Amino acid sequence: PDTGTGELRFAVQSLENLEYGFSVFRCDTDTIIPDCENPLFFVLFFSLYAPEIIKIISKQNMQYWNAWKIVPVLSFAMLFGMLRDVSFTGLNITKKTRIIALLVISAAGLNILLNLLFIPLWGFYGASVATALSQAVYFIAVYRIAQRYFPVPYEIHKIILMTGTGILLCLTGLLINPWPLIFRLAIKLILIFIFPIILYWFG
Prior knowledge:
single chain, 2 strands, 73% helix
C-alpha cells in the first residue's frame, strides 16, 4: 500500500514545534534583523540528521523511513513562515486588514495550485515542495508590500545569506547520507559548526 500520506503526516508531526522557542528579531541602532540564526541551527540539525532521527522516532517502523527526505523541505518552509510572520509587522501596525486578507487568500490559492501540479508528479514529495515554495513566495510578497506602507530597516541581505548558506549545507549533507554511519555523523556535525563561521566571514 502507498504510505506516502503516513510519511508526510509523520514528518509534519515531527516538525510541528519548529517555530517555537526562538526570539523573533534582534535590533541594533540602525537595523532590524529577524533572528533566524537560532532556528536555522535547528533546521540544519534536524535536516542533516533527519535519516537517523526518523529511524529512532519511528522505532524501526520502516514504512516511515522515507519521511526523512521531506524533513529539510518542510523545515525551510517553516522558517519562511516565521520570517513572513515578522514581515507582517508593518501591515499590522498600519491596520491594512484588506491587504492582509488578500495576501492570505492568494497564498492559500498558490499553495493549492502548486499541490495540484506537484502531487501527481512526485506524491508526498510534491506536497512538501509546494508548501516550501508557497511559503517562500508568501514571505517575499508580504515583505515587499509591508515595506511600502511601513518601512522597516530589515537587513534582508543577511537573511538571504543565512538562508542560502543553510540550504547549501543541507544539500551537502544529502550527498554524504550513503556513507558509513560514524563518518556521516561526524561530517554533519562539522557542517553545523561551519555555519556560523561562514556567516561571520561573509556577514
